[in-house]
Amino acid sequence: MISAELTVNLYLATSDLLSRELVEKALPDLYTISCFDTISSLQQGLQDGKPELVLCAQSLIEDKQKQILMSLMSNSPNSKILIFGESRPIDIQIEALKNGSRGYFDNSLPIEKLHIALQNVLHGEVWIERHVIAGLIDELSHIPEVTQQQQDSLEKLSPKETEVAEQVSYGLTNKMIASAMNISERTVKAHLTAIFSKLEMSDRLSLAIFFRDLRM
User: Fold this and answer.
1) Which residues of the chain have pLDDT under 50?
2) Which residues contact 153 (CB under 8 A, 6 or more apart)?
3) What's the pLDDT tens digit per position in 78-90?
4) CA angle 141, 145, 151 (to 5 degrees)
5) Would you say domain 148-214 falls under CATH 1.10.10.10?
6) What is the CATH number of domain 8-141?
């Protein structure tokens, strides 16, 4: 987790005042929040500053999701975008991920979980519900090619690391993997860190796709 001494610049884009107030009250002080009520003002903000995180309401991008997300990423390539909003069909959440967002936070979840979601995204992971993962893996239109170096690196994985990676490819969370393997969540995280390093990957979605392809 990020230390309390460090601050995270977060751009919050929503036209709903109540949503804005809920987010501001739910997040701890380590976030420096700048608010925008339109996509155009957010785009201007991204030209002036480069936040670590962008939290954008689905309602602002509903009609032109792909175009808007591409524009936001063009303005600030290193900013990680998390979409939030009311419950949406799986295909809409998948489209948001395919178009460059790092996840979809469903407003039906307790607002206290938003900090956890943002921290996951900040550290290179994605935030999606488990039932979306299988659909995402099947629907992704562009699967990164497995390099020969990654293939060779498989031999460097320990049996436990391989088992953890396979569990990730089936959409299991760290907590579920820990329970299934009778190990602690800290041990699961340690295995994942080693796996990412050995396979030269940065997030669990890439890992899931990689191991899914190995089964095909």
Assistant:
1) 1-5, 141
2) 198, 199, 200
3) 899 999 998 777 7
4) 140
5) yes
6) 3.40.50.2300
